[in-house]
Amino acid sequence: MATIRDIAKRASVSPATVSRVLNNDLTLSVTDDTRERIIKIAEEMNYSKTSKKSQTRIALVQWYSESQEQDDIYYMMIREGIEKQIQKFNFEIIRIFNNDFSTIDGDIDGIIAAGKYSFQQVDHMKKYSDNIIFIDDDQFQNGFDTVLTDFKYGVQRALDFFLDQEIKEIGIIYGEEKSTDGLKTIVDKRFDCYKDYMAQEGLFQEKYCFKGDFSKKSGYEQMKLAIKKLDNLPKAFFISNDPMSAGALRALQEASISVPDDVQIFSFNNTSVAGYVNPELSSISVSTVQMGAAAVQLLYDLLMNKNHVPYKLELATKLIFRESTKKVEKK
């Protein structure tokens, strides 16, 4: 039985356009020739009206499993932003975990992919739809719309906060991860920003850099390693996310190293974890909900605007100061 996707491919238009034409949506901006061509192709392919979809169907692809998402508030908040915004367009949303498309029943009109993906995984997505928006994975150079966080200036502002206190030895605990198929290694852009800026200031030292895997356990282990290896621990650490920072904080407390009196910590993401630990973490706030909403807006334009061109959006960050850093008196 012919599907909307089959008709769209033959007519060289998007599935969403076919769906709206066959549902007699007179607000759709297409030429009469295009509208007539779609209807004619549908008739030639014996398209059954009973198979029409009443809604545009969007797949929300997440690289984590559902249980892993519960432990990662960052991606959970992105999803909530997507689901809230998508209601405005009356799209049907299908959730897919671990990039597993076997759960899809029927056609989909577009994809929002949150997470990190290998070339092979992206190629697999394209078999289901060419209309893909990526969140937190820079696929812009491959022709896809991409929504990202500003890492560069957020990290620089946190480092400047320490440098303004004349702290020149600043450590970092950062992460490295792989796509779920293991075929792509994802470097931590926060580390790249840290390294470039500290080198620019003539202050970069490899011995102050500790690489983990973004988990609380890893943050704990890497800070324990720093305490063991370094004769003099840096007076400040930038740490790539809140769970790692919470783990690092525990290691410092076990070693009777006071935060922020002996060592200050600036974290990244500003999830609820930052406010649950003691002392509470200063953290760079990321606009996770807005990232999800922006992806939906981009997908809507991609589906409905024949003149759409790919966008690369970087959302700004904000420094949130709490108890893990010292208050600096302004002169």
Automatic annotation (TrEMBL):
What are this entry's molecular-function GO terms?
DNA-binding transcription factor activity; transcription cis-regulatory region binding
The protein's UniProt keywords, in alphabetical order, are: DNA-binding, Transcription, Transcription regulation
Residue intervals passing through the bilayer: none
Q: Which InterPro entries match?
A: HTH_LacI, LacI/GalR-like_sensor, Lambda_DNA-bd_dom_sf, Peripla_BP_I
Q: Does the keyword Oxidoreductase apply?
A: no
Per the record, the domain of life is: Bacteria
Could you tell me which SMART domains the record lists for this protein? HTH_LACI
Could you confirm whether the keyword Nucleotide-binding appears in this record? no
Q: Which residues form the HTH lacI-type domain?
A: 2-62
- Supply the name of the protein: LacI family transcription regulator
UniProt organism field:
Companilactobacillus nodensis DSM 19682 = JCM 14932 = NBRC 107160
